[in-house]
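Input/output pair, single chain:
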Amino acid sequence: MEYLQRRVGLVEDRIESVIDDVEPDELSDEVGHVVLAGGKRVRPAVTVLACEAFDGDPEAAVDFAAGIEFVHNASLVIDDIIDRSEVRRGTAAAWAEFGYGPAIIASDGLLGEAFALFSTDPRAMRTVAEAMVELGEGEATELAARPTNEAEYMELARRKTGALFRAAAELGAVAGGAEPHAIDSFGEYAERVGVAFQMRDDVLDATADADDLGKPTGQDAEMDRPSVLQVTSLSPEEINERARAESERALAALDDADPPETEAIEYLRDLAEFVVVRER
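Output:
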């Protein structure tokens, strides 16, 4: 665990240094409120670990890792506005703390800082741009072209959650100097982990305690949001099994890249197994 904490610590330091330089101070405070409130930092961890899996220096992936976390948090700000969710990670959501206008500006600010971090590498810019197109399409689908069956839900989960996970892994593989086939395999691994993560998130929203989860529960039902529980007749137990199947496919994709056995790879394997049993 110390191994992973050190790597996430590198990303935390970079995130804090970027936020400290944001101007004006009011925007820095708002951005800091969003990003520094906590979070699992799963996506930036994937970025750094993917880099190390190809014998890359974790320092080479830190900017990309911080950037992907900024993109993720920017999307959460908008999610909370759409859902009218007042709590995020046990603290006030940005719109509840500062108002709608400042929250939207904070989201924009996060995206700007993210792309500044990606701008050193055209491949990184392209990777994240493609992920954001998918993310935007996923958000629009959720609002305007709601899924009505399991297949449509899985496509929504791939776009809304899986695409950013894919980008996180591909960014790390690029930073580590991986070959194109390996980059694609790592991307598939992370996309499937992201889908499993979203399915488990839907189950937790319906079954977990809000205090344990760190955010309101029952939001999917209250907002009539198309969670996997709403658009299928599957039970939470059956959904967990579907998520586990995605996790197993993720592990197969990871093996397809034929990476050397390293501590980084072990953590990536552990992540694929963790997302389907997590309790928050």
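Residues 2-274 form a domain with the Farnesyl Diphosphate Synthase fold (CATH 1.10.600.10). The chain has a mean pLDDT of 91.
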